[in-house]
Amino acid sequence: MKREIVVYLLSIPTKMQIVHVYIKCVHCGQWHDHANIVSYTSFSGRGENWSDGKTVTSYDHEFASFVKCGNCGEIFWENDAMCVEEHYVSKYVKTKEKDEGVEKNFTPKQLAAIEDFIKGGEMHDLPDTSYPLSEYFYNDFPEVFIIEDLDKALRQGEDISMHKEIELRVYLWHTINDFARFRKMFELKRLFELQYLKEMFDRKSMKNQIEYRRLSEKKFTDYQKLRVSNLERLVEILNPVKNLKANIIQFDSSDIQKIEINRELGRFDKAKEQINKLNEADKKFYRKFIYKSSKYISNRDTRIFRID
After folding, report:
1. pTM (predicted TM-score)
2. Looking at residues 7-23, what average pLDDT do you find?
């Protein structure tokens, strides 16, 4: 059962469709409360598109298809886990009480999950497993905890699929880059935003921003070795998607990602060569990215940049 709610992230209204489910850790068997976000719409209208493919809105961290167990601390994927929607559990309990026979009301898969969940005996005060964990945001740099989680999952995940490895590595790439994802200190188009004007003329706020930027730059430098090794592996495994029915190679964002990764790694000639290999349709579709990327390549600049 989907529930549509409006929440406020940084005082910006955001509409989410949420399905409340119970999900079981594939490692230790602990059941969790989990809010499965099936759609997400922000009304801020101020999304920032960055060269590494991340779009920053009012919610600064990406939603993931993997979660972290609140008991054993291991990462696992929702699709691999046994899960059941909350309203199915309630329906099961009511059906049992009325002695109406549960088999005809549920599929065998649903029935197995519900009975396993109820057998656990705990339906209240279950750990929450939505990722990133809310407790991370009580710290100045929640990215540090996310990076540790992703690095651990990649080092231990010898048997994960290529698709999962790519998801983890892209998430890690974006998270490390968050330390260098700075807005300009002065932006003309934001002069009509009340909060921006307050920050501009508040000396304490400006001082805090400058100090936060300094510390962020230091964090970015601290993770350089991990960043480089992650990107070197990622650029090896990114491939276009093959459409088997049409027997053609379909373009997806992997070509653009490879251009960006090679530029960030300082492989400017390789990045330029890949831009030249793009067909005209792709060059037109990604013209803003290509224009700015070409300028950064000419200047031998590895920094990420805003596209819009």
Report:
1. 0.79
2. 57
